[in-house]
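Dig into what follows:
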Amino acid sequence: MAVSPRFNRGIILADQGGHVTISELVRVHACPVRFYYEKNEPVTESDRYAICKQISYHLGNTLEADAIWDEVLTVRPATDPALREFLDVCIASCRKHDWKPAAQTDVTVVSQKQGIAGQIDRMAEDGTFSIVRAAGAMLFGTYVSDRLRIAGIAFCLEEMTGKEVEGGHVEYIPDGISRYHAVQPRDRRQLLTTLHKLRAIHRGEAPVHPLNAPCNRCKYKERCDESGGHRLSELL
């Protein structure tokens, strides 16, 4: 499906069309077998992510806890009231650091060449971008899944703007930390490899467990153990 881009404040925006999403690629990378089992199930964000996301709209400006909590409840009325404490912790952490205010939020980006689409959570006036996470930060660096997200966005932005994208920021809201990741060739290779796996799944090929898959915590463990060498489509 063709995507008709439009310009908005110097940044190209586009509809996702029939593209696979960067979030899907992250799920496939974590475990392609689990993705196969869940690919037709709706993916919903957690209450913790909803809180972090709402806080992110205010970064670079005054963080008023009561006002942000009211916004959270407007967006998700069923949010657990006990998570108000989590919001307060996040805001206290974010107040310890300076943040660039966003010139744009929730910017959809697309790569026609790779057939992928994603979303930038926050983009500053200077063109730098960030993704928002509800997890705590690592002592150093960024998580593999976040590096994959940044690489996917870089692919899209480079195609849409015609300019090289060196990297982006990951904002770990609970810790109030913004960490820059410079995209490496290995990130790009990993993204392309994962994209091939996703396309193979869509063709009906049986995905293979990665060596570091979190099988012990997965509800599909028994089902996977029984699959043997068969195509998953034959077992469902």
User: Anything to note?
Assistant: The first helix runs from residue 22 to 30. The domain at 12-204 is CATH 3.90.320.10 (Lambda Exonuclease; Chain A).
